[in-house]
C-alpha cells in the first residue's frame, strides 16, 4: 500500500454523535463492528447529540475536553469518529488530542486495505486511499520548510508537500491506467458470456448478510467468509448448472454499507459492473437483523447509484436458522413469480428452493409448444432430439410428425438460423417479443 495503515490491536475510543438530520445518522453498533473488523481494540464510547456539526472540530469544545480526558485515561492511540470529517476538522481534533484521528471513511478504507486479495482489488483500494488522503497530506508536513540548497540537497524549489502531491498525482494516474486495462479485460469476459448467452447471477447485499457463505454452499468455492464486515472484496465467478436454463455464472461481490464512501464506489466500478450487467440479482438479506429494513433501503440506494436498480432481483432472506419459527419457503407475487426465498446458508436449508426460484425466473423465455413437422423435415426433428428438447412425439398415418418440444427461445432461434428456417414459422408474431412463454 502507498500509505501505512495502523497496526491491529490499537486502543481506540469511538465517537458517535446523533445528528438532527435523520439522513446523517449512523449506527453506533455498526461503528463498533467496523472497528473490530479493522483490528482495533475499542475501549470506550463517547456519545452526544448536535443539531449541526461544529465547523472547526465537528464536536463542541466541551466534548473535545471530555475526549481529551478519555484519551489520557485509557492511553488510547486512536480516536475513531462515526462520521465523515473534513480534512480541517480531522487536523484540528488531532492537534487538540495529540493522537491519531480517523473518520468513518478512513476506517472503511483501512478495512478494505486489509481484505483486498487480488492485484485488481489492491489497486482499487489504493486508488481510493490516495484520493481520500490527497486532501489530508498537509497534516504530515506542517513542520517542513522549503527544501534547502547545497551539495546533495538541491531540489526543484518546491516544498516537501508539493513534491508529495506531485508524486501522488503520478501514482493515481498510473493506477487509473492499470485499472482501465482491468476494466477492458472484464468487459471482454462479459461480452464473451453475452455472445454465448450465459446468464449471470450476481449476489448483492449489505455487508455481513451471508453472501459468501451462500456462495460457498452453492458452488463449493471456498471463498473467504467470516462474521465480520467486508469479508469479501474481490469478485469471484463460478459456473453453476440450472434446471431448464443450463449453465449460468454466479458472482460474489463486495457488500454495501450505509453512506459507502463515493470514492470507494468509483474505485470499485469495475467490480460493481458485474452487478450492473447481471441477468439476475440475488439480494441477500440478514433476516435476523433488527436493522433489516434500513439495510435493504441502503442496498437499493447503492444499486441506484451504480445504475443497477432496474435489474431483475430476487430477495434471499438468509439466517433463518437463528429464527424460531421461520421455515424455508418461496414467496410469490400476484402473478405467481418468485420474489423472495427464505433459507439458511449455514445449514443449507432452503438452498434447493433458491435454485428452483432462480431457474423459474431465468427460464421465463422458454419455448414449450406442440410442433407439426412434415415428413421431409426429419433433419429438424433430429436437431430437436440432439438438444434434448423433445418431450413427446406422435406420427399420424400420413407421416406428419407432431413433437412436443421444450427449450430456451434463444436456442430455438439459433437452431432455426443454422437450418435457414424463418423463425416466424414457429414463433409467429412473438418472434421479437423479449419475454415470451408458451406452456
UniProtKB/TrEMBL annotation:
The GO terms this record gives for MF are: GTP binding; GTPase activity; metal ion binding; ribosome binding
Compartments, record wording: Cytoplasm
UniProt-annotated binding residues for GTP: 205-212, 230-234, 252-255, 318-321
> Which keywords belong to this entry?
Cytoplasm, GTP-binding, Magnesium, Metal-binding, Nucleotide-binding
Which Gene3D superfamilies did the record assign? 6.10.250.2860, GTPase HflX, N-terminal domain (3.40.50.11060), P-loop containing nucleotide triphosphate hydrolases (3.40.50.300)
Top-level taxon in the UniProt lineage: Bacteria
Record's GO cellular component terms: cytoplasm
Residues that bind Mg(2+)? 212, 232
Q: Does the keyword GTP-binding apply?
A: yes
Record's function text: GTPase that associates with the 50S ribosomal subunit and may have a role during protein synthesis or ribosome biogenesis.
Quaternary structure and partners = Monomer. Associates with the 50S ribosomal subunit.
Tell me the protein's name.
GTPase HflX
Protein species of origin: Amphritea balenae
Q: What is the lineage of its organism?
A: Bacteria, Pseudomonadati, Pseudomonadota, Gammaproteobacteria, Oceanospirillales
The gene name on file is hflX
Amino acid at each position: 500500500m502507498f500509505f501505512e495503515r495502523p497496526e491491529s490491536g490499537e486502543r481506540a475510543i469511538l465517537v458517535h454523535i446523533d445528528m438532527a438530520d435523520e439522513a446523517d445518522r449512523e449506527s453506533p453498533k455498526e461503528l463498533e463492528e467496523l472497528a473490530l473488523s479493522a483490528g482495533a481494540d475499542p475501549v470506550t464510547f463517547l456519545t452526544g447529540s448536535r443539531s449541526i456539526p461544529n465547523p472547526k472540530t465537528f464536536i463542541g469544545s466541551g466534548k473535545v475536553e471530555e475526549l481529551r480526558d478519555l484519551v489520557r485515561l485509557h492511553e488510547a492511540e486512536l480516536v475513531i469518529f462515526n462520521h465523515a470529517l473534513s480534512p480541517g476538522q480531522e487536523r484540528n481534533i488531532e492537534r487538540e488530542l495529540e493522537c491519531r484521528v480517523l473518520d468513518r471513511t478512513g476506517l472503511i478504507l483501512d478495512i478494505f486495505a486489509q481484505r483486498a486479495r487480488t492485484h485488481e482489488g489492491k489497486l482499487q483500494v489504493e486508488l481510493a486511499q490516495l484520493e481520500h488522503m490527497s486532501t489530508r497530506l498537509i497534516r504530515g508536513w506542517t513542520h517542513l520548510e522549503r527544501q534547502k540548497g547545497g551539495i546533495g540537497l538541491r531540489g526543484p524549489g518546491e516544498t516537501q508537500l508539493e513534491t508529495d502531491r506531485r508524486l501522488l498525482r503520478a501514482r493515481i494516474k498510473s493506477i487509473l491506467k492499470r485499472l482501465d486495462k482491468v476494466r477492458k479485460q472484464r468487459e471482454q469476459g462479459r461480452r464473451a458470456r453475452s455472445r454465448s448467452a450465459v446468464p449471470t447471477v450476481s449476489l448483492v447485499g449489505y455487508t455481513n448478510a451471508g453472501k459468501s457463505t451462500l456462495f460457498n454452499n452453492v458452488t463449493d468455492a471456498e471463498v473467504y467468509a467470516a462474521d465480520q464486515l467486508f469479508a469479501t472484496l474481490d469478485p469471484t465467478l463460478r459456473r453453476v448448472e440450472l434446471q431448464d436454463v443450463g449453465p449460468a455464472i454466479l458472482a460474489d461481490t463486495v457488500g454495501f454499507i450505509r453512506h459507502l464512501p463515493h470514492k470507494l464506489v468509483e474505485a470499485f466500478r469495475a467490480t460493481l459492473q458485474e452487478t450492473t450487467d447481471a441477468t439476475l440479482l440475488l439480494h441477500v438479506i440478514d433476516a435476523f437483523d433488527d436493522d433489516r429494513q434500513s439495510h435493504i433501503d441502503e442496498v437499493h440506494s447503492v444499486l441506484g447509484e451504480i445504475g443497477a436498480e432496474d435489474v431483475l432481483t430476487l430477495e434471499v432472506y438468509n439466517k433463518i436458522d437463528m429464527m424460531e419459527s421461520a421455515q424455508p419457503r418461496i414467496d410469490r407475487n400476484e402473478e405467481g413469480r418468485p420474489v423472495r426465498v427464505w433459507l439458511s446458508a449455514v445449514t443449507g436449508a432452503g438452498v434447493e428452493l433458491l435454485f428452483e426460484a432462480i431457474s423459474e425466473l431465468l427460464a421465463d423465455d422458454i419455448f414449450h409448444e406442440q410442433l407439426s413437422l412434415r415428413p421431409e423435415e426429419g433433419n429438424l426433428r433430429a436437431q430437436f432430439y440432439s438438444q434434448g428438447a423433445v418431450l413427446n412425439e406422435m406420427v399420424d398415418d400420413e407421416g406428419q410428425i407432431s413433437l412436443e418440444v421444450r427449450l430456451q427461445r434463444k436456442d430455438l432461434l439459433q437452431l432455426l438460423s443454422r437450418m435457414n428456417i424463418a423463425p416466424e414459422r414457429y414463433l409467429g408474431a412473438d418472434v421479437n417479443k423479449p419475454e415470451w412463454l408458451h406452456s
